Amino acid sequence: MVDRVFAEIALPPDDLSWKEAIHHRTASARAVLARHPWATPMMESRRSPGSATLRHHDAVLGCFRRGGLSWPMTAHGYAAVDAFLYGFALQQAALPATTGDEMADLAEEIVGGLEAADLPHLAGFTAEHVMRPGYDFGDEFEFGLDLILDGLEAAARRDGT
Question: Is there a single domain that holds both residue 62 and residue 122?
Fold first, then answer.
C-alpha cells in the first residue's frame, strides 16, 4: 500500500530548477498524504520498498544532484525536507481546524476564556495573526520549505558544492 501512495506523488520535474522541482514534489506529497493520512508514519518504514518508492527516491536524489549538491548535502537536504514534510503532514492531519472561520472559532474557544495578561504572547499571536482573515496554517509549509531549501543552498555554497 505504501508503494501505491508513493506512486501517487509527482516526481520532481526535470524542466524546473531544483528548488522549484522540490516545491512541486512536496506540494504533490502533501496532497497525497492528506488523502491518505494513515500512510505518513509508514512512508519510510519498509525494508523491502516497492519499485514506485525506489523510483521516487531516485528522482528526488537526482533533483538535488541536478542542483549541484554534493552527496553529503543531498543527504542533508533529503532528510531535512522529508522530516519537515512528514512532520507537517502529521501535524496538519491532527489539528482540529486549519483555516478560516473554523480556525477562528477554535482559537476563540481555546483562548477566549483566558486572561490575555496571563498568556500575552499566545493571546497576541491568536488575535493578531491566527484570527486575521485569510489565515491558513498550511501556508506555513511553504515558508518553512523555503527556509530549508535556502539554508541548504547556502550550506552547499559554503561547502564548495
Answer: no
pTM score, whole prediction: 0.85
Q: Using the Cα atoms of residue 91, residue 92, residue 95 and residue 100 in order, give the sign of their dihedral.
A: positive
Domain interval for residue 75: 2-95+138-159
69 and 7 belong to one structural domain: yes
Q: The C-alpha cell of 15 is what? A: 524542466
Residue-by-residue pLDDT tens, the chain, 161 positions: 889 999 999 999 999 999 999 999 999 999 999 999 999 988 888 788 899 999 999 999 999 999 999 999 999 999 999 999 999 999 888 877 666 677 777 777 776 676 767 888 887 887 787 777 777 888 889 999 999 999 999 998 888 76
One domain, residues 51 and 76: yes
Cα end-to-end span (Å), the chain: 37
- DSSP labels, 101-141: HHHHHHHHHHHTTS-TTTSHHHHHHIIIIITSTT-BTTHHH
Q: How many domains does the chain have?
A: 2
Does 109 lie in the same domain as 79?
Answer: no
